[in-house]
Amino acid sequence: MTTHYYYLLAVRLLLIAAAGRQKLSKAEPVTLPGCPDRCGDVSIPYPFGTKDGCFLPGFQIICNDTFHPPRAFFPYDPPNCNEDSLEASIDCLVSQLNSRKPLIMTKDSIYSLNDIEDYTMPGNMSFSPVELTGVSVADAKLQVHAPFCYDCKLNETHYSYRGEIRISFPSLSPFFMTEESTVLMAIGKHTSASQLMGPPCEAVVTFDDAVNGKCLGRGCCQVPIPPQDTSNQVTINRRSSLGITNYKDDCVYGMFVDKSWYKFTSLDLHGDVFMRKNKARGVPVVVDFVIANHSCPRPGQPAPKGYACAGDNTMCVQVPLDLMADGYAATGYTCRCSQGYQGNPYIPNGCRDIDECKNPDLYPCHGKCHNTEGGYKCACPAGTKGNAKLDHCTEMFPLPAKLGVAAIGGLFVIALVAFILLLRRQKRKMRQLYMKNGGPALEKANNIKIYTREELKPILKCANFIGKGCFGEVYKGYLDNQLVAVKKPVTDSVAHNEQFANEVIIQSQVIHKNIVRLIGCCLEVDIPMLVYEFLSKGSLDDTLHSNNKVPLDLDVRLNIAAESAEGLAYMHSKTGKRILHGDVKPANILLDDDYVPKISDFGISRMIARDKEHTTSVIGDRTYMDPVYLQTGLLTEKSDVYSFGVLLLELVSRRKATYSDHNSLVRNFVEAHKKDEMPIELFDKELVEPGDLELLGSLARVAVECLNLDVDERPAMTDVAERLLMLKRSRK
Q1: What is the pLDDT of residue 24?
Q2: Of the N and C termini of the chain, which has fewer Cβ atoms inside 10 Å?
Q3: Which residues, if any, are the signal sequence (predicted)?
Q4: Integer Cα distance of 29 and 14 in angstroms
């Protein structure tokens, strides 16, 4: 493992006792409920504990509150080893190794310069508990403090000498030192340090050429300790292998120490600064721990009794057998939080999800970070690609592609702006047309619905076209689930604005069963459109004169004549103002499914007041037009009567009147009437029955009377309607 790793580990262990660690302990539990989690400044996470029921076997900690603040120690039973002989010391150590309590043994003495010939000097052996200064359950490591060996001048004649230190964890103990974290180190101008089972270390400086920083042998040396060392000792000797002995005022030191803690400085080669600064508490040593003498459960097997890894999101890490030195522990394991989690894996629910997005230094993300349970996602922003966890995202499109996209985008924006401006202009134009075509006035009409152009657009298709009159095209379709006919005036209609306004005013005032009902209109166009009820049988002209002639008996024709006359009579005399149709003809008489007639196409209708009976232009179908109106331009009720007379003749003869031959149909019937003859040959053969000739003659007389060139001799439309109604009743 790298030196950087050891440095980070040491920092983590030191932070356990810092205020930042205290904040973490408040956020996440570190021990079992009801158990103390601190001793002074030291956090005590489970499986360690200071109270019965709060620790696993072998993990008890003694919190000594005689110190201020309290300090944490491993429990220990000091042996009675005060003998000065080497044999007695060895017996004491063996006895301690067989116990289950960690301890530290030191051997101190005072010597004079006269004693240096026999460097193996007797000393006083003392024992002390191992002090705990930090715990990291995530790394399964402890930080303890241990004394160090030294040889320093006490006065002018004597030296204080701690020549031997032993750190001992008993057999079958869960604790051991490893070469990964702890080293044997010697500091001095001419000194050596040795250990029981590992290599020695020599520090020699012939001249003052020590280099600060690393321990490379010039004033400071370090060597690894044996792997998984449960018990080891360090001794020092002021004389090096070169035979150089230096008894000046300078101190020499030897110790087991956390390899990342000490950074060599040449100041420690002079005087006793290092000893005075560190003698009271000692130096930090890293100790690993395991759940000793137990193994991880195999995949698929249930957890054994006493299994230490608690709750979900934990995993068991088996300690390799070849790392268990000295045969003290057959096996062991540690508990870790699963990847993406942190906390204490030895307590229930102790492992919590890590929000990796809040710690980009450890969990890099060069894109958009999203935390997930047990991990995190890191995606490149839109328009980029790559593995955002490993490196910065790169643009998906090169510069030329970007310029192309920008150009297309610019054109799109221009087109969009143009479209919006055009849409606003169109909307403003529709509003102007709506106002010009009398929208505000028509809004007040309760029986007229005003449609938008978009509502009528689906109907105005070629597939829905059903015919064309002299004032517009007619389409059929559905509006509000009702079949309707939409009249769209053509652009070359004569005086279309005046005619449209006239039709809307007239139709909004006329409600009769024999007059086509106006449903609504559309004003958002140059030439407004009308919406009528749709009549399925079409016009009377189609019924009489189409190639597929529909059989019509006399009763049906008489009913068409009588009800058409009734509708015209209503227009002439039963509305608020006199309403003249001006274009009465079979094409403007529509039929429903029961052949009930309804008057339509008020394209040249006039709502004429008493003082406005003349028109300067003659509009309509000249075949059915009053000759007097053609000559004078004077449109009256009698003009509609004349046109109705022509319609009656077509109805009984099923022959189409024409203007080009001076209307032979009209002329023939008039001449027969003058001769008082029954024009049997002029009637439709379908109607010529002996019992119906009298009725046919009566219909012909009514028609001829309507065709009188003397306007004053023509009957009124109300008289015509009454006579036809009487003829209709006579059939019953």
Answers
A1: 39
A2: C
A3: 1-27
A4: 19
**Total residue length of the chain:** 732
Both tokens assigned to 423: 């849409």
Write the DSSP string, 204-269: E-SSS---SBS-SSSSEEEEEPPTTBSEEEEEEESS-TT-----SS--EEEEEEETTT--B-GGGG
Provide mean pLDDT across the span 234-259: 75
Q: How far apart are CA 312 and CA 582, in angstroms?
A: 95
- CATH: 3.30.200.20, 2.40.70.10, 3.40.50.11420, 3.40.50.300. Which one for 437-534? 3.30.200.20
pLDDT for the residue numbered 684: 92
CA dihedral 251, 252, 258, 263 (to 10 degrees): 70
The DSSP letter of residue 49 is B
In the annotation, is 583 catalytic? yes
Domain 540-732 has CATH 1.10.510.10: yes
Query: Can you tell me whether residue 474 is helix, strand or coil?
Result: strand
CB within 8 A of 665, min separation 6: which ones? 646, 649, 650, 653, 655, 656, 657, 658, 682
Q: What is the pLDDT of residue 606?
A: 47
Percent of the chain with pLDDT over 70: 83
Cα–Cα distance between 397 and 409 in angstroms, integer?
Answer: 15
Q: Which amino acid is at 730?
A: S
502: left (phi over 0), alpha (psi -120 to 50) or beta: alpha
Of the pLDDT bands very low, low, confident and very high (cuts 50, 70, 90), residue 81 is low
Whether residue 488 is annotated as binding a ligand: the answer is yes
Query: What is the rounded distance in angstroms from the CA atom of residue 230 to the CA atom of residue 142?
Result: 14
User: Most confidently modeled of 243-247, 249-253, 534-538?
Assistant: 534-538
Residue 386 has pLDDT above 70, yes or no: yes
Q: What radius of gyration do the chain's Cα atoms show?
A: 59
- Note whether 437-534 and 540-732 share their fold: no
- The answer to whether the CB of 564 falls within 8 A of the CB of 514 is yes
Residue 286 has pLDDT above 60, yes or no: yes
Looking at the predicted structure, is the pLDDT value of residue 137 above 90? yes
DSSP H or E segment with residue 673:
helix 664-674
Q: Partners of 127 in the beta sheet?
A: 105
60 neighbors 173 (Cβ within 8 angstroms): no
Q: Which of 250, 583, 621, 684 is an active site residue?
A: 583
Better pLDDT: 115 or 314: 314
Task: Report the chain's terminal Cα–Cα distance, integer Å.
Answer: 120
Measure Cα distances from 643 to 316, 392, 539, 599, 633 in Å.
109, 90, 16, 13, 15
DSSP 133-174: EEEETTTTEEEEEE--EEEEE-SSSEEEEEEEEEEE--TT-S
Using CA atoms, how far apart are residues 429 and 488, in angstroms rounded to an integer?
19
Domain boundaries, the chain: 72-289, 295-350, 354-396, 437-534, 540-732
Quote the CA–CA distance of 599 and 586 in Å, as a whole number.
9
Q: How many CB atoms lie within 10 A of CB 157?
A: 10
Q: Where are the beta strands (DSSP E) in 534-578?
A: none
Give me the helix-helix angle, 637-653 and 717-730, nearest 10°.
30
Phi, psi of 135 (to 5 degrees): -135, 135
| CATH architecture for the domain at 354-396 | Ribbon (2.10)
Name residue 656's amino acid. Answer: K
Q: Write the single-letter amino acid at 469.
A: G
Using CA atoms, how far apart are residues 640 and 240, in angstroms rounded to an integer?
144
DSSP code at position 460:
S
